[in-house]
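Action item from last week, closing it out:
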Amino acid sequence: MAALAWLVTGAFIDPRLDLAGQRWLGVATWIVLLTLLRRESALVRAQTLGVVALAASLEVLAKFLELYAYRLDNIPAFVPPGHGLVFLASLTLARWRPFAIRPLRSQALVIALGGAWAIWGLLLAPRSDTAGALFFVLWLGLMVGGRAPMLLTSAFVVTSIVELGGTASGSWTWAVTDPAGLLEAGNPPSGVAGIYGFVDIVVLAATRPLASVSSVTSTSVASVASVTSVTSVTSEWSSQPAS
């Protein structure tokens, strides 16, 4: 889990850096991402870079809407490649045998933990988290009704760790309310994985034509568990009929 380790480390290093140091952290993060991608299939590389591009666009939108703020009031250089590492870390966890061998059990456990967090955010947290509960419902719908449940399950774990680390260190802070003042959000929102999951699903859909012509091997980093066996994320997606 080199990708996740780098993400957590970077989240705690960032508050100690000035703008120049933050840019160097961005360069280092790109190097880590590109190094990890060298051993991946062409399909996984395309998916990862697709996540980077889409997530970077959403970062610009989030900054405009002031949904959250980074400590230097910018979009740090490490953030775009960081989204690629989040995707790779999610793929890695999804194919990790202890996690993937019993997919329904893993999914149920993450649903239970995520649901408990969402309820705590609504009823017990010092800062109300209605946005987090809605994000959790979005994630749950994508996970249960989608074609890549194990990817979304692992994404919940990875993104929660990253978000908890980044907000705890002060690297970024979520706004108390949305721009319209209708929803309150925790720091981080409990179901923030729903946003990351949406990005993953869009990218998987966009690269589905590539998946249909790519050979899938047992060593692919994109391999995830189905109910009875370990199959690849891309195979899991392309084997389903289009909706």
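Closing note: Residues 223 and 232 are 3 Å apart (CA to CA).
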